[in-house]
Amino acid sequence: MNEIQKILIIEDIPEVSFWLHAQVSALLPERPIDHADTLAMANKAASLQTYDLVLVDLGLPDGNGSSFIKAYKTTQPNALCVVTTIFDDAEHLIEALRAGADGYLLKDDTESDFINQLAGILDGRPPLSASIARFLLEQFHPNKEEQIVLTQRETDMLTLAAKGLSVKHAAELLGISYNTAAGYLKEVYRKLQVNTRAEATIKAINLGLINAK
């Protein structure tokens, strides 16, 4: 933590900004902390100062905090950029990590959890909030009631598609119309939340919905 000399908090809600200031001050006393409540202010501050630690909110009035992270990390790759947000979904998480975020913490975690996770990031430990880590694990180990269920016709259609058969050929083998076969495949895509045959095949095999052979 001794390497952290100057800190920037990017947060548009004053009460939350004050709370983050208190958490950081508890971990890193006597370090100067600047504040910005918009992307424009953050970019201006970053053009005038070099920050070793930046806490970045994602939902700012003039844009997404991930854009700041991406730009800042190109010029200051050794700086720590930690997302502090209310968004606990995969889309925001992946976007932030791809932008170069060094950590992802939820502002609605308990104060003790938040400060412990932030301390861990500063010490080089895993950079995710505990609740975010649980969320990611659930994506790979879905609960039984959340498991995807395909009908027999949907399974047949996906199996044939996975073998490389066209929708027309699969429809002929199954003795159904082209439109009906296409409808089954579309429903499979919807249930698996994918957009292509390749994605559907890989996900279905991983979930044990079809045989890999």
UniProtKB/TrEMBL annotation:
The modification 4-aspartylphosphate is found at residue 57. Residues 6-122 form the Response regulatory domain. Keywords: DNA-binding, Phosphoprotein, Transcription, Transcription regulation. It holds the Pfam family GerE. One of its GO terms (molecular function) is DNA binding. This is LuxR family two component transcriptional regulator. Residues 143-208 form the HTH luxR-type domain. GO terms for biological process: phosphorelay signal transduction system; regulation of DNA-templated transcription. CDD domains: LuxR_C_like, REC_NarL-like.
